[in-house]
């Protein structure tokens, strides 16, 4: 016999031995009585934990007055607060438009390249800041309503 066929036979025997060994470890004899006993114990423990949870929740509700919980649940921005927030937002937006237009006018009138480059940097930075503030406002206002 050639060495390759001997090697193939040895490999097949090892493979079959491994399958038998692993297959035997997966086979468990029927322990239905023990499994049922363990299941009953776990269900009893779960029931006890549910009762304990209910007692703790009732105790916690007694500690916190009912009016306080209702106030916290219903609290939110008032109409006056929302009107003031919108007024401030509109004022900031108008101020940004004014500053941007004035800087662009100044850039057009200036003949110095350094001044023009600096105005471009300021406009770009301020524009990035404005977009960031708008994104934050959108996130905050969508979570409120």
| Helical content band | over 70%
Total strands: 0
Question: Count of helical segments?
Answer: 5
Q: Given the C-alpha coordinates, what overall shape results?
A: flat
Q: What would the average pLDDT be, to the nearest integer?
A: 81
The termini sit apart by 83 Å
Low-confidence stretches: none
Biggest sheet record: none
Query: Beta-sheet strand percentage?
Result: under 5%
Going by helix content, strand content and strand pairing, the class is mainly alpha
* Alpha-carbon Rg, integer: 37 Å
Summarize the structure.
This protein is mainly alpha-helical and 145 residues long.
Tell me about this structure:
- The chain is mainly α.
- It contains five helices and no strands.
- The protein has helices spanning 3-26, 32-63, 66-74, 79-109, 113-144.
- It is flat and about 95 Å long.
Strands, helices and their partners?
Layout: H1 3-26, H2 32-63, H3 66-74, H4 79-109, H5 113-144
Keywords, please?
single chain; mainly alpha; 5 helices; 145 residues
